[in-house]
Design brief:
2 domains, signal, Nuclear Transport Factor 2, Chain: A, globular, 4-stranded antiparallel beta sheet, Glutaredoxin, Thiol:disulfide interchange protein, alpha+beta, 5-stranded mixed beta sheet
Length: 248
């Protein structure tokens, strides 16, 4: 199950009229065209949504606006906005998705893995990090799928965004004597975690981290090369990704 944070919630508005503000320009910000886009867009929607960068797109006269969780496009005046994918027909490449993936690449070594629930199967050589809500149905399906995968280490960042009960269960799981067992028992067998959940937890920090990394849905899987898979994937897709990582 997915959710929308503030930036993603703007998407429908982008489709019909405008985009967000709270603007940070990338290299080249001194160009008059970029300044004009900045001023117009900022005035349109105000300061509540951060625009991470504005750059020239490969198409003349079209500017790429990075909202973190999505990329949209504007003309040089900032008046007209296009919400959609830019395709290169010669190379059969989705330039929007390709660039968004690069913009959202995560540095694995920067992940605070001590704030994650860790479990290991086999030799644990293959690693993933997952942002997951205890009450997310697709997160449950992912955990059940992972029981089919060998030689894996999973770092789960408890990310309770669906309900107050999600927060309660996340606290109970984190405060359990065996966090990994409590997490997997709940996610694979619906065995409810016990205890009051009154210890210090990293939940608030995890929520802030997810926002910083533009995690807009659960589950969100991050691989050691910094790429991600938003949403549920199957075992075959995961194995193909691991094989690609091994070759790289």
């Amino acid at each position: 199950m997915s959710f929308r944070i503030r930036v993603a919630a703007i998407a429908s508005a982008v489709a019909v009229a405008a985009i967000g503000a709270g603007y940070v320009l990338s290299a080249g910000a001194a160009e008059p065209a970029l300044d004009k886009v900045k001023a117009t867009v900022q005035k349109a929607l105000g300061p509540n949504v951060e625009i991470k960068s504005v750059t020239k797109s490969p198409l003349a006269g079209l500017y790429e606006i990075n909202l973190g969780s999505q990329v949209v496009y504007s003309d040089a005046t900032g008046r007209y906005v296009l919400n959609g994918d830019l395709l290169d027909t010669q190379t059969a490449t989705n330039l929007t998705q390709e660039h968004l993936a690069e913009l959202n690449r995560v540095k694995w070594s920067d992940l605070p893995l001590d704030r994650a629930v860790k479990w290991v199967k086999g030799n644990g050589a293959r690693k993933i990090a997952v942002f997951s809500d205890p009450n997310c149905p697709y997160c449950h399906k992912l955990e059940q799928m992972l029981t089919q995968v060998d030689n894996i280490t999973v770092y789960t960042f408890l990310f309770p965004i669906l309900s107050e009960d999600s927060n309660t269960k996340a606290k109970q799981i984190w405060c359990s004597a065996d966090r990994a067992k409590a997490w997997r028992d709940w996610m694979t067998a619906k065995t409810a975690p016990g205890g009051a959940g009154t210890c210090d937890t990293p939940l608030e920090a995890n929520l802030k981290l997810g926002q910083q990394l533009n995690v807009t849905g659960t589950p969100a899987i991050i691989f050691p090369d910094g790429t991600r898979a938003p949403g549920l994937i199957d075992a075959a897709t995961l194995e193909r990704k691991f094989a690609a990582l091994k070759k790289s």
